[in-house]
Amino acid sequence: MNFLYSLATAVTPAPEETLAPGVAAEDVTPGLLGFLFTLFMVIAIIFLIRDMTKRIRRVRYREQVIAAEGTADRDASGSEAPGSPDAPRTALHLDKAVDDPADRDSTWDHLR
């Protein structure tokens, strides 16, 4: 057992790095094309992250506006507003009950 442990932890010398005949060291580096591709990917990811952050902020602001409108409506009428958390789910603006199936938007049905 001790032999297997020492065999697994033994340091082996690194083999000399030799290239195939006719291949230069510059040929095995990514070069300018690899750098440009990496730069393109970094720039694309930066734009995607900025766009995602903007969209998330927009959703949060909409939620705050709906909550504020619901609070104002509830204060004005004295009853539950459609956007209030205590109101039934079918009373929300996005989840209105639709009687006619032709008027129903089925875009997000796969998420329910």
Please explain how this structure is put together:
The chain is 49% helix and 0% strand. By secondary structure, the chain is an all-alpha fold. Mean pLDDT is 75; it is low at 89-93. The protein has helices spanning 2-9, 31-77. The radius of gyration is 31 Å and the shape is elongated. The longest helix has 47 residues, at 31-77.
Proportion of helical residues: 40-55%
Question: What is the total tally of β strands?
Answer: 0
Structural class comes to mainly alpha
The general outline is elongated
Largest sheet: none
Low-confidence stretches: 89-93
List the helices and strands and how they pair.
Elements: H1 2-9, H2 31-77
Defining key terms:
mainly alpha
Quick rundown:
It contains two helices and no strands. The protein has helices at 2-9, 31-77.
